[in-house]
Amino acid sequence: MVLGSACMLLSQTILLSSYLTPEMNALFNGLCLNYEGKVKLTTEYKGVLSKIQFEAPQVYERFDASSITEADDARFDHFCRRSVLLSFYGMFPCVARS
User: Fold this and answer.
1) Contact predicate 75/65, CB 8 Å
2) What residue stretch is flagged as signal peptide (predicted)?
């Protein structure tokens, strides 16, 4: 057997994805060839949200921006002003200094 024609059977292909899509299946079934075969592995990750001991409130605040291009800077400025204000009144969680 000539190496040129066998190289597609002697290569290893690894596909990583969070979701299984038809395009991934087509790629896996059509182009992923190997002398020893193919394997699909899935892992189930339960997450860590069930291990949280307390409920952390989520607060959404509206901020004003003059345009969509300046929304990121306005959001950051609002966060900085709000964080300084909350830390001043002791309402913002912080790491205790030792």
Assistant:
1) yes
2) 1-26
* 70 found inside a domain: yes
To 10 degrees, the CA torsion angle through 40, 43, 44, 48? -160
Residue 66 lies in a domain: yes
Per the structure, the count of domains in the chain is 1
Full-model pTM: 0.36
What's the pLDDT at 36? 74
CA atoms of 98 and 94, how far apart (whole Å): 12
